[in-house]
Amino acid sequence: MTSDRALCVREGIYDSDVILVPIEDGDRAEALAAMGKTVISIDLNPLSRTSKAAAVPISDEITRALKNMIDFAEEMKGDPSAIDRALESYSGERCRKETVDYICESLMSERGR
After folding, report:
1. End-to-end CA distance of the chain
2. What pLDDT band is residue 69 in, cutting at 50, 70 and 90?
3. Domain of 104: which CATH number?
4. Does the global pTM surpass 0.90?
5. Residue 106 in 3-state DSSP?
6. How confident is the model at residue 1 (pLDDT cuts 50, 70, 90)?
7. d(CA 73, CA 68)
8. Per-residue confidence (pLDDT) for residue 6, from 0 to 100
9. Domain total for the chain?
10. Strands, E, within the chain: which ranges?
């Protein structure tokens, strides 16, 4: 990125392995992914550049998504096997596809009304 938004401190984004990119910021998500960072995005649009660049795309409203993330972490707290299973079975691309499929099915059912 060529703007001031590209600046970061070593103790922050630069040294981080995983970075949350809330809301639409395709430039930042793509730049971070290109740096080898694991990007988690929260964006209503599963077809946005932000969602496409993210290893973990979350298509939801931000306050609901954050609450769900906290609840999910609490459920798995202290259960390494549950964490391993979640990591092994997760696919960001599959999640994006399922979200798009759900939206398309919902729109098609509305069309028939």
Report:
1. 46
2. very high
3. 3.40.50.12640
4. no
5. helix
6. low
7. 9
8. 58
9. 1
10. 18-22, 38-42, 56-58
